[in-house]
Amino acid sequence: MPTATRWRLSAALALAAVALVQSLAAADDPFYKGRTISLIVGSNSSGGYDTYGRLLARHMGRHLAGNPGFVAQNMPGAGGIRAANHLYNVAAKDGTVMGIFDQAVFLDQLLGVPGLRGDVTKFNWIGRLVGNSAVLFAWHTARVKKIEDALTNELIVAASGSSSRLNWTALNALAGTKFKLLTGYEGPATAKIAMERGEVEALSLPWSVLKAENSDWLRDKKVNLLLQTGDKNPGLSDLPRMIDLARNEADRRVLEIFTAPTVVGRSFVTPPGLAKERVEELRSAFMAMVKDREFLADVEKMNFELGPLSGAELQAFFAKDYSPALIERAKEVAKLAGN
Prior knowledge:
Layout: H1 3-28, E1 36-41, H2 48-59, E2 69-74, H3 81-89, E3 97-100, H4 105-111, E4 124-130, E5 134-139, E6 155-158, H5 162-175, E7 179-182, H6 188-197, E8 202-206, H7 207-213, H8 215-219, E9 223-228, H9 249-258, H10 260-264, E10 266-270, H11 276-289, H12 293-302, E11 309-310, H13 311-318, H14 324-336
Parallel strand pairs: 1-2, 1-3, 6-7
Antiparallel strand pairs: 4-10, 4-11, 5-8, 5-9
Helix pairs in contact: 5-9, 5-14, 9-14
């Protein structure tokens, strides 16, 4: 064999060997090694979205090969829509960005609320830490002692957020309740003070929050529990749900649309367009995290509750088909609430 030919063959073999070594090294080098995952939190640095977001940020990296760090970045604005728009249109689609935004964004999309630039159903849903079936409760001096009483007696309800305004407006329209909504309160803290002063008679809170922050109200029977907005909470199996008040099946279907945020709760997404294997890696890590002893100890220390749902189950929920006629009825109800 001529010398030049032997040289070219040796060079080709050497290059092939280098390529093989690099390929094997890449296979043993996890994607997340040396990387950081940005967690976009669609709220300010207080409240449930931020707290649950930072809880995930402290623990999920241990369950991904390469053990990436997480850095939380708050992006409040437009009721969570600002963060959703960023995740959908701007954020990297390689698995290095996750997010959590307001549970009502999917309902906003169904109702045609302006400002959302994307399709919530096309996010890759990674998992849910907890649902949010809020409880409506009335001060003990109110004439309404159980939800049936609200069909014949007016009940003054503090409704500071869009979800509560929509829920109680929908029940007035579709179940015949007589809720009078007062919307001038900044949030639950001021609404609770107003209720103690007698300015309002009722408001709603997540069941876990009511138990943690106002256990004395429950112990001393200062409030009467009336209704839960979504699925039944632990220990409240006999308390009616919103959809239980529907007068017929058609009205029940409309009320189901308004309960969608309770299913979403505190859920996490990645932008659309992420490779399937990366989505599955993140979903597997999420489900491993929610079973981890260190994670569960942190949850217990915070006195928080969990209601995990897998990413696949969430994705199936968003794939539900709502007929145009059903959505139009929901939009008509929403107009009554000023949406």
